[in-house]
Design brief:
This protein has about 425 residues and is of the alpha+beta class. Helices cover about 35% and strands about 25% of the residues. The chain is built from 14 helices and 17 strands. It has an eight-stranded antiparallel beta sheet, sandwiched between helices. Strands 4, 5, 6, 7, 8 and 9 form a six-stranded antiparallel beta sheet that branches. A three-stranded parallel beta sheet has the order 1-3-2. The longest helix is centred in the middle third of the chain and has 19 residues. The radius of gyration is 22 Å and the shape is globular. Its main location: membrane. It is a single-pass membrane protein. It is an enzyme of class 1 (oxidoreductase).
Amino acid sequence: WVWGGLGLVFWAISRGFGSFLWGHSHCFSVGFFGILELARQQGKRVKVVGGGHSPSDIACTDGFMIHMEKSPTLPVDKEKLQVKVEAGILLSELNLELDKHGMALENLGAVSEVTAAGVIGTGTHNTGIEHGILPTQVVALSLLVASGEVLECSAAVNAELFGAARLHLGALGVVLDVTFQSRARGFRLKVTFPSTLTQVLDELEEHLRNSRYFRFLWFPHTENVRVIYQDPTSQPPRSSSSWFWDYAVGYHLLEFLLWISTFFPGLVVWINRVFFRLLFSSRQESVGRSHRVLNYECRFRQHVQDWAIPIGKTREALLELKAALDGDPGIGAHFPVEIRFCRRDQIPLSPCFQRDSCYINVIMYRWVRPRDPGNPHSGSAHSCTRKDLEQMFPEFPKFCALREKLDPDGTFLNPYLEKVLF
């Protein structure tokens, strides 16, 4: 299923499945415990839904669904540049609150209409070889487990659980609040310029040194690449955006042509080449607030596959993918294939566990699965089972054992988790 936000909620209600509960996490000590008790009495399960952005069915349930809307920002420590937020706050709201205090998150994903707990639940990431996935910015959290106990977690308290809960899949309990490490706010200079796939792969190490937030877009069926740097700057805000080129051509016309191409796949090659020449073949610069530059619009309805591979395999994987697409004229791969980079971490279910990684993000209307995909982003659609995940994540059995200890009756499970955990 691909359900988003209220669509998922109204579907569950209209079909008569379970109950949907809107809750403020102010009431968690009483309200959530009552929900857990009621679920036990009725033999139902409990799931928390965030912004509904994930295209996987990780939050779907026929039991009780909790949505912690309108969660406020809690204390801000300006000296440590840390902020404590309730789990249901959207990052778009948090970005504005931090800006008022002269602060900003060090890194953000592509979109901010996601909740604080959801971000760490699925391992949201962006790019920057000096930066980890977003959960690495979490320094503490509170977790309501199936017994009704609230556990405080950090590197110093419940350290093992803290490590697991920073990418929890919604399987360990209900995250009540999250403390993020932030930085002083500022502007970022976004520089984009054209290149070729061969050239970018030849100069990959240089690009990684040149920009702390380097990524690139590859246009399948071509050699064309758009390189993107997004780095802190003292320059004043400026923009090179154009409604005609960005929206009339780059959105409405492009979406129409991509829709046509679903009936005539041979058009995709032409579309990729022409739109690169029209929109991405020149150098462009802009300056804006950190969160505005790091976020970008996902304008089309998309099917997303996001896989992390060891960074040393970047060239091999992309050339193999290019050869596979070029060798099958029946496949029309819509652009872009987005390539991003993240620093290694120690989070058990992180795709970057103990290795610097390259993320290959295929965004298209029709998906082509790589032959050897790597580690999946848990927020994107994938078909991996427990056997697959045990091979990808060395700490996966420990995570499953910890989940079993915290939730022996499976209160927080659903069909998606049963597929990947058992």
